[in-house]
Specification:
The chain contains eight helices and no strands. It is mainly α. The model has no long low-confidence stretch (mean pLDDT 93).
């Protein structure tokens, strides 16, 4: 009997066709590069902190992480346009307070992405170094921190709704939660955990005194894994 490997939280079989679709998705590739970036950072951190980097591999992996970060910036340029698609969903939301929160989420995403694009123009070489103020990236990171807070608030509500649906489905079905409902609940909870990871990562980027480099790296790696899975699911469906 042939071994069948299914994509996590879906019924899609992992085969050459699915892998090709994932490779052809720019967003999925960018998120996978993020996994590689933070894996390289973790290797660099471990080699330097634990072994003192005797063979300079720590420096090598740190340089690799920086190159991967720069490569990702090309993929992310102008992605803020896609957030305007969410305005319709925000307006369609029946709960007034949550509708307002969703509109704030759209605005926060646009501001954060535009500020990152401005930083990227210098990082990737479109602008000569020194053209932008020295603290441009620092203030851009604060936009990311604010965005993480808004996203956590939105995701908490979405996760609560998904949990309520799962509970209602279980009570009306002899304690059994349908697979699709259970998957949606799990995905909502994963997305919430991703935004908490983004917040921890933003603490380090914003140079807050209590921030931890290891927590920054592990949070970035977790956020990358969850994001990759999220966008890959959209591709393989």
């Amino acid at each position: 009997m042939a071994l069948v490997v299914r994509f996590p939280l879906s019924d899609t079989e992992v085969n050459l066709k699915v892998i090709t679709k994932l490779i052809c998705s720019a967003q999925t590739r960018e998120k996978f590069l993020k996994i590689l970036q933070y894996t390289a950072k973790l290797l660099s951190y471990g080699l330097v902190k634990a072994l003192g980097d005797p063979a300079s591999y720590g420096k090598h992996f740190e340089a690799l992480a920086k190159n991967l970060s720069t490569a990702r910036r090309f993929f992310k340029l102008c992605r803020w346009f896609k957030h305007f698609e969410d305005i319709a969903d925000a307006k369609a939301e029946k709960a007034p307070l949550f509708s307002g929160l969703l509109c704030l989420d759209v605005a926060a995403n646009v501001v954060a992405d535009v500020s990152e694009d401005i930083t990227s123009l210098e990082k990737v070489g479109f602008l000569k170094k020194g053209v932008l103020p020295k603290r441009t990236e620092y203030y851009s990171n604060w936009c990311q921190l604010a965005l993480a807070v808004v996203e956590i608030a939105v995701s908490h509500i979405k996760a609560s709704r998904a949990q309520a649906k799962a509970k209602a489905a279980a009570s009306s079905n002899a304690g059994v939660v349908p697979v699709d409902v259970r998957r949606k609940k799990t995905l909502a909870e994963l997305e919430l955990s991703k935004y908490y990871a983004d917040l921890v990562k933003a603490f380090w980027d914003c140079e807050l005194s209590f921030a931890s480099e290891l927590a920054f790296i592990l949070s970035g790696l977790w956020a990358a894994a969850v994001s990759t899975h999220k966008y890959a699911l959209k591709v393989v469906k």
